Amino acid sequence: MKIKVLIVDDSALIRSLMKEIINSQPDMEVVGAAPDPLVARDLIKQTNPDVLTLDVEMPKMDGLDFLEKLMRLRPMPVLMVSSLTERGSDITMRALELGAVDFVTKPKMSIQSGMLEYTDMIADKIRAAAKARIKARVLPVAGAASQGGRPLPQVGNTFTSSEKLIIIGASTGGTEAIKEFLLQMPSDCPGILIAQHMPEGFTRSFAQRLDNLCKISVCESAGGERILPGHAYIAPGHSHLLLARSGANYMTQLDQGPPVNRHRPSVDVLFRSAAIGAGKNAVGVILTGMGKDGALGMLEMKQAGAHNFAQDEASCVVFGMPREAIAIGAADEVAPLMDLPAKVLGYLATHSSRALRV
């Protein structure tokens, strides 16, 4: 049975192009197209779509207002279509918080040629959205364990925790999963490197939002930073993020090489660099996401002595990347998202020492 898609966009050209792209796929079809949320409301009742694509900035009713009402009254997979602007990226981050599964960007230059180049990406994201688990998200209080408000394990002082690193990879559903994970990180946690599949222009907004919410400092990596405890570095949308060494120090490194597994930044690239640069001093965490990016890199981390965690199926929006890592034996432990921060910190608390060894 084909995936039924409803398009909501005020641009007739975008609606036409989206319809062409979606209907060109053998496993999906457009069941309706609406110029605004008011028309969309009626079409949802008539067509019962599996996935809705929603323009971020809409007339008559703001896209965020419509999304909030939709997720409260009739939760369903929503794929946001966002403009590459500062306002567009901020609104998109808020849309993901409200329950949108993922987003695609409108093309920068020629709309027609740009959108047609995105065919595979749009189709893949719609397939992932159709399989997504749509549920209300309740975030734990920052710095408290998810059960009973117990304090999280303490890694130790900055000196002892500086030898360890936490390396995170995620894709679909990952922005909220990463936020939930980082909200529970104490200010003395080991340095954290993150590869989240996200286009250029959005990673900075993502990092700034997290920096405002978390106890730790969060930034979009500029490359060449010394990796410090209590800091998280997010791969920018235009580059792979790698872990490098400079003497006794861990450093960030950016690389604009070709996409790996169709992604730049790629989780595999980050994980492989952690296997080489940190070995058993790294802890890998693979979170919700479609595809298999990160699985082989996580296996290399394990072979180098790292201890790895994977998010379990029940708490994933899309159980793709963790499933692939688990299937090849790359994950040492599998746990619900709400339990992962305490498990990671608990492991680090019992495996930290004062000597930096690789």
From TrEMBL:
Keywords: Chemotaxis, Cytoplasm, Hydrolase, Phosphoprotein. The active site is at S171, H197, D293. Its main location: cytoplasm. InterPro entries: CheB-like (IPR008248), CheB_C (IPR035909), CheY-like_superfamily (IPR011006), Sig_transdc_resp-reg_Me-estase (IPR000673), Sig_transdc_resp-reg_receiver (IPR001789). Its EC number is 3.1.1.61, 3.5.1.44. It holds the Pfam family CheB_methylest. It is found in: Cytoplasm. CDD domains: CheB_Rec, REC_CheB-like. It catalyses: L-glutaminyl-[protein] + H2O = L-glutamyl-[protein] + NH4(+); [protein]-L-glutamate 5-O-methyl ester + H2O = L-glutamyl-[protein] + methanol + H(+). It is an enzyme of class 3 (hydrolase). Residues 4-121 form the Response regulatory domain. The modification 4-aspartylphosphate is found at D55. Contains a C-terminal catalytic domain, and an N-terminal region which modulates catalytic activity. HAMAP family: CheB_chemtxs. Involved in chemotaxis. Part of a chemotaxis signal transduction system that modulates chemotaxis in response to various stimuli. Catalyzes the demethylation of specific methylglutamate residues introduced into the chemoreceptors (methyl-accepting chemotaxis proteins or MCP) by CheR. Also mediates the irreversible deamidation of specific glutamine residues to glutamic acid. This is Protein-glutamate methylesterase/protein-glutamine glutaminase. It comes from Actimicrobium antarcticum. The lineage of its organism: Bacteria, Pseudomonadati, Pseudomonadota, Betaproteobacteria, Burkholderiales. The gene is cheB.
